[in-house]
Design brief:
28% strand, alpha/beta, 16 helices, Rossmann fold, 2 domains, 27 strands, seven-stranded mixed beta sheet, globular
Length: 514
């Protein structure tokens, strides 16, 4: 059976996920077979495994850091908030049901066997399981129904490192208060880690000595604040992406100024927003998340992203008059792109006969695409391989080689869309389909197009072609490939891991798990 180590925190956003990511890479680099594990996650930014299971994107990134394939056992319970309808509960990668908050807390005990089952399977396959808690383990109103923090630590017999976020202030009070509220369970906490430090270590040292004297636990690491981590964020709760402007980013030795303005519609229930991350690192792109009509109508490209509640976000767009802004932008020749829920929003009609997302039977879409969507009770979740249709390939000049027309991504949606479909020929990997078995996806109408495929912009040639089409329209010269997104992620995982390893007492941690 594997050894276990758990990372908990004094609250959300303290850096647990990134710390687990770094530790997975550190131990993997040391020859340890290591896996991440989070019993219960709440995130709208999910990942689809090879088997078609849905897990939190943080656990997928951690698996990447451990150089292993993401699996549903790494995140057996995933919660996806969907507004007034509560949350969708995913168990072992598949939809378990939709529950209000109170209903879910009554359900937790019945989910505990699934959590144990996943942990047990992982512990038989690996040498070390690095576990991530959620929120704070000391929430006194939630501890009785806990399946992700101390209950998990006890089951796994895992020593716990407690992380505090000094950037928010009150870090010593948070560490001390958490320990005291935990009562007897505090014995599992073996040491503290202070994250996001920006100050003078000499000023901090007296506090480190005092917290050790008062609690009997040492601070085994003070990790300086890491700027521009450039790794996928887990949830929109902590993302403030109002505007990004890069200054003279070098491209093949020559400075390139941001010249293409891409506006991502800031939806209330935005999900899988990491679809757009690769665009941010393009040197000629200014990326803006906005719900301002002026931004939309003066963009070069507007993207309507995925959403956990398509109908709700569509109605909100109409209330704000943004449906008219999108139409005016389209009339001006702005490229409009819809991804998943955004693709559905751009269609003519959305039908919800089973009231999956709302109490409406049908809703008028924005109407830029000649498609209609019907929400079913079953969910499609699969990695896909996609081949661009001739019209799509020729539109964006991606017809030179198979490498440039063959794309990878994933689907995750409840709706089924019909109408003028035919941008991509997709093969669903989770269905174990042969190459000859495929479906068509996506629709195009003039300068507006949409698709169910997430992750398209991680395909470097495709991403650059879309941007270059906007450059040509503005009379600018197209650029060659500026960077590799997969290489950038790998470099950043290594960089973050070196940063954490430098400032963490790894010898203490090795002793803990030995």
């Amino acid at each position: 059976m594997a050894k276990a180590l758990m990372i908990q925190a004094t609250g959300s956003g303290a850096g647990k996920s990134i710390l687990v990511t770094a530790l997975c890479r550190i131990f993997n680099n040391s020859g340890v077979r290591v896996t991440p594990f989070k019993a219960q996650n709440m995130a709208l930014n999910s990942y689809i495994t090879k088997e078609g299971g849905e897990i939190g994107r943080a656990q997928a990134l951690q698996a990447e850091a451990a150089r292993i394939e993401p699996a549903v056992d790494m995140n057996p319970v995933l919660l996806k908030a969907s507004g007034e309808r509560g949350c969708q509960v995913i168990v072992h990668g598949k939809v378990f049901g939709n529950y209000k908050a109170r209903e879910y807390y009554c359900l937790k005990e019945s989910l505990w066997p699934y959590v144990k089952e996943s942990f047990d399977r992982l512990s038989k396959q690996y040498d070390l399981v690095i576990m991530e808690g959620a929120g704070s383990p000391a929430e006194i109103n939630l501890r009785d129904s806990d399946i992700v923090n101390m209950r998990m630590a006890k089951y796994a017999k895992a020593p716990v490192l407690l992380v505090g976020d000094i950037d928010r202030g009150g870090v010593f009070a948070s560490l001390y208060g958490t320990l005291k509220l935990l009562g007897r369970d505090s014995r599992y906490i073996k040491a503290f880690v202070i994250n996001k430090f920006r100050g003078d270590m000499e000023i901090l040292k007296p506090g480190l000595e005092m917290i050790e004297k008062r609690t009997g636990r040492s601070v085994i690491g003070v990790i300086p604040y890491m700027k521009d981590i450039m790794l996928p964020e887990e949830d929109s709760l902590f993302f403030d992406r109002s505007i990004h402007v890069k200054e003279g980013t070098p491209c093949h030795g020559e400075p390139v100024e941001p010249s293409i303005k891409i506006v991502v519609l800031r939806l209330r229930y935005i999900s899988n927003f990491t679809d757009l991350d690769p665009l941010f690192y393009e040197p000629d792109v200014e990326l803006l998340y906005s719900a301002n009509p002026s931004d939309i109508e003066n963009a070069d490209i507007v993207i309507v992203p995925g959403t956990k509640n398509t109908v709700k976000d569509l109605l909100l767009l109409k209330q704000q008059g943004l449906d008219q802004s999108l139409k005016r932008a389209s009339e001006k020749g702005v490229m409009i792109i819809g991804i998943c829920g955004g693709y559905q929003i751009l269609g003519k009609k959305i039908y919800d006969p089973y009231h999956v997302e709302s109490h409406f039977d049908e809703v008028e879409g924005i109407g830029l695409l000649d498609i209609k969507t019907v929400f079913n009770t079953s969910k499609i979740t699969s990695q896909v391989e996609a081949e661009m249709s001739p019209v799509m390939a020729s539109t964006f000049q991606l017809y030179e080689s198979a490498e440039r027309t063959s794309l990878k991504g994933y689907e995750i949606h409840m709706g089924r869309t019909t109408g003028d479909i035919g941008l991509f020929r997709i093969t669903r990997m989770a269905d174990h389909q042969s190459i000859s078995s495929y479906e068509m996806d996506g629709s195009i109408n003039g300068n507006c197009w949409g698709t169910y495929i997430h992750g398209l912009f991680e395909n470097d040639h495709f991403r650059r072609a879309i941007i270059n089409s906007a450059r040509v329209k503005k009379g600018l010269k197209p650029l060659g490939l500026t960077y590799s997104y997969s290489d950038l992620k790998e470099e950043m995982i290594e960089s973050v891991s070196r940063h954490v390893e430098k400032h963490l007492d790894m010898s203490f941690i090795w002793r803990l798990i030995s």
